[in-house]
Design brief:
This protein is of the alpha+beta class.
Amino acid sequence: METIKLKHEDRIKALDNCPSKANYNGDLVLFRWVKTPITEDSFTPHSLLREKLKSMCDAWGLSVYQCLEEAEAELKNLTKRNREKYNAIAVCKITNSDGVKYQSGRNKKHFTFFPNEDFDCVAKFNLIKGDE
């Protein structure tokens, strides 16, 4: 099996057990909050935005949800500051070759996705729900 190189891999590998070895095997349709129009900014890991998160493994991945309803509910509950960053939901079918994906956090429908270095988030995530 060929090894894939992840985006920001040099920084990720510096963290213990990152990403988790609990990689989900198989395809998953996953939903992500984005800002319209969709640009690369919607796919910047939190670790690059906030210094204090640089040592947290999951902050190097992207938060995604396994079901649209859960993504919608969480989006509606964002703080006003975060609502300025995200106003829509995009969807993508993630395969094993696209990167590492695993369930994370207390919410069983929340996943963290570490895309491979060639994965084009802007091209692959399709807008499905935005501010009406």
